[in-house]
Design a protein that fits this description.
Elements lengths: L2 H7 L3 E7 L5 E6 L8 H17 L6 E5 L4 H11 L2 E8 L2 E4 L10 E9 L3 H12 L3 E10 L24 E6 L4 E2 L5 H4 L13
Parallel strand pairs: 3-4, 3-6, 6-7, 7-8
Antiparallel strand pairs: 1-2, 2-9, 4-5
The chain binds zinc ion (ZN).
């Protein structure tokens, strides 16, 4: 399964000149929701991710996703693993488990995102779940932006990664893009104008 091709075909992997949410510029951008637009494709990706988790022998009772970005990926992964799917969401800045979702003491929970950048939201979700008495056994995402270390990739993590070392991160691929400060961006120097992908067409 060529993950990069799948992301390109679905319009989730963009090439051009972009302003990232950090304010930095890049020639690539991941529009992760696009890869899940087709439920069949989402199912195939989740099955591939579930296979990695099963191969590693990690037992999971429940998949928990940070809303909004992780919900579809988490739901499809739960389906592929044959386990329960829940999500945490932000209320007044803090992540909370709401809507009648509960976890029990010792329950094995995997935190799933669509994409892991620094892992900040995934870590927040993990903290809530552990405060409620369940055990976070692993993290998972369809794609990893290369700051955190994907299980089996042999690559180390970068200082930006917020995920704990002792828990594995399962992901289908690393997407590492060159990132530039705006004043040093070679694309700007060539005269092109950076765009914010999220705001195009809105
Ligand atoms: Zn630029």
């Amino acid at each position: 399964m060529n993950i990069e091709e799948i992301y390109k075909e679905s319009g989730a992997l963009l090439s051009g000149h972009f302003i990232l949410s950090s304010g930095k510029h890049s020639s690539n951008y991941l529009q992760s929701a696009k890869v899940l637009e087709d439920p069949k494709r989402a199912e195939l990706l989740a099955e591939a991710l579930a296979a990695l988790i099963k191969e590693a022998g990690v037992a999971v009772d429940t998949v928990c996703a940070p809303a909004l970005g992780g919900v579809i990926a988490g739901y499809e992964l739960a389906r592929a693993l044959g386990v329960r799917s829940i999500f945490v969401e932000r209320k007044g800045g803090e992540m909370e488990l709401r809507r009648g979702f509960e976890v029990s003491s010792g329950e094995k929970v995997l935190i799933c995102e669509d994409i892991i950048t620094t892992g900040g939201s995934a870590l927040e979700a993990a903290k809530i779940i552990e405060e409620l008495g369940a055990d976070v056994v692993a993290f998972a995402a369809l794609a990893n932006r290369g700051f955190c270390s994907r299980s089996g990739s042999g690559k180390g993590k970068k200082p930006e990664c917020k995920l704990p070392d002792e828990k594995p991160l399962f992901a289908l691929a690393d997407f590492e893009f060159k990132i530039y400060d705006p004043d040093e961006c070679p694309l700007c120097k060539e005269g092109s104008t950076a765009v914010k992908p999220g705001s195009r067409g809105n």
